[in-house]
Design a protein that fits this description.
By secondary structure, the chain is α/β, with parallel strands linked by helices. The chain has eleven helices and 16 strands. Strands 1, 10, 11, 12, 13, 14, 15 and 16 form an eight-stranded mixed β-sheet that branches. β3, α4 and β4 form a beta-alpha-beta unit. α2 runs parallel beside α3, α5 crosses α6 and α8 packs parallel to α9. The longest helix is centred in the middle third of the chain and has 19 residues, at 196-214. The radius of gyration is 22 Å and the shape is elongated.
Length: 384
């Protein structure tokens, strides 16, 4: 919740900037961890969602590991103080340099996403004279029923190893001298609000575990990914998302041996509600069919609406409580027609200089910001 005191601070801050409620983030992380630990599950933070130091420090303080998708993320995780044994490294296109770095750092696991990648990891590990821990990311061909750009678990997606390749993967690992298979990795997509896809995923995980067991390859851990969505329409609901129901699905349907651990890589569900993008109204431009509210923030600060057609709650902080409303297309200053945060949005009658909050922008907001049009983001504002 953005308070009157917060708005007073915003008045003297150059916009646009991100506003982080670190206390809310801490409460959300602790709520998720408590729900996970009820079943003995282990949480990693999907660092791609937000990699700023204050956010990572909250994750580290609460005992989470990290899920990384680049060598730079692995380096930052280690530099900021995450233990190497809590760092997982996924991604379909790891460079040789990144793989060597991961092997040398002796991280928890390198999650391999193709037979070809396994061959490269084997070769590089041999060159270093090391045996390295790996997990195999399998593509479960489960439809997450989410936006096509954030679906990752279908046969048509680039992620993971398809079912028809598993026998070749098992054969290769079986004869490898430098790969230590410790886990299986799955991830079906992002912003998933319906739990049914996760139920389907559990069935695919059970089949995969049996297949590897039959091949004589013991599995120590399963990484079930993340993908749990949030309610963007209600940014101040501190009970959202429902971590208890999410973890209960896996507890009820997954067949794990007592010796096997279950890991998750949550991102959006932990950080989305903790940050808002604060902007100022530059112009109210009259049109024939709609009025345009032109902000000083655009797709360079928050690309999700342009990229995924995502919809965020938008609030005029300067006109809180005012009853007269108008419809606005809320847009940014970037020279692209897709630079739009919302169409025909009902907001209080607005004017130049009003402070505008684009809510629940803590995930894939600042982490995806760019310098297109040579624009730059102002320093973030934090509330502890």
């Amino acid at each position: 919740m953005i308070t009157k005191e917060d708005i007073g601070r915003f008045e003297v801050c150059p916009t646009p900037f991100y506003f982080y409620d670190l206390a809310l983030l801490d409460r959300t992380v602790r709520r998720a961890k408590q729900a996970a630990e009820k079943h003995g599950y282990i949480l990693h933070f999907a660092m791609k969602a937000n990699a700023i130091d204050p956010v990572l420090n909250v994750m580290k303080r609460n005992g989470l590991g990290v899920d990384c998708v680049s060598g730079a993320e692995v380096s930052k995780a280690l530099d900021i103080g995450f233990a190497a044994e809590s760092v997982a490294f996924a991604g379909v296109g790891k460079s040789d340099e990144e793989i060597v770095q991961a092997i040398a750092s002796d991280i928890f696991t390198i999650n391999a996403e193709s037979l070809e990648e396994l061959e490269v990891i084997e070769e590089l590990a041999a060159g270093l004279g090391k045996k390295t821990r790996i997990a195999v990311r399998l593509n479960p061909d489960v439809d997450a029923n989410t936006h096509k750009y954030i679906t990752t678990g279908l046969e048509e997606n680039k992620f993971g190893i398809s079912g028809w390749q598993i026998d070749d993967v098992i054969a290769f690992i079986g004869k490898s001298s430098h790969l230590q298979l410790t886990g299986l990795h799955f991830h079906i997509g992002s912003q998933i609000r319906d739990l049914e896809p996760f139920k389907n995923l559990c069935g695919r995980i059970n089949l995969a575990l049996q297949r590897f067991a039959d091949a004589g390859l013991p599995i120590e851990h399963v990484n079930a990914g993340g993908g749990l969505g949030i309610d963007y329409d209600h940014p101040d609901d501190e009970k959202d998302p429902d971590f208890e129901k999410f973890f209960d699905v896996f507890n009820e349907l997954l067949d794990l041996k007592p010796s096997q651990t279950l890991h998750f890589e949550l991102g959006r569900s932990l950080v989305a509600h903790c940050a808002d993008l604060i902007a100022r109204t530059l112009y109210i431009k009259k049109g024939l069919k709609t009025n345009f509210m032109i902000l000083d923030a655009g797709m360079t600060e928050l690309i999700r609406p342009a990229l995924y057609q995502a919809i965020h709650s938008i609030e005029n902080l300067s006109k809180r409580g005012e009853e007269e409303v108008e419809r606005y297309d809320v847009v940014g200053p970037v020279c692209e027609s897709s630079d739009c945060f919302g169409k025909a949005m009902q907001l209080p009658l607005s004017e130049r200089g009003d402070l505008i909050a684009i809510r629940s922008a803590g995930a894939y907001g600042e982490s995806m910001a760019s310098h297109y049009n040579l624009r730059s983001l102002r320093p973030s504002v934090y509330r502890d």
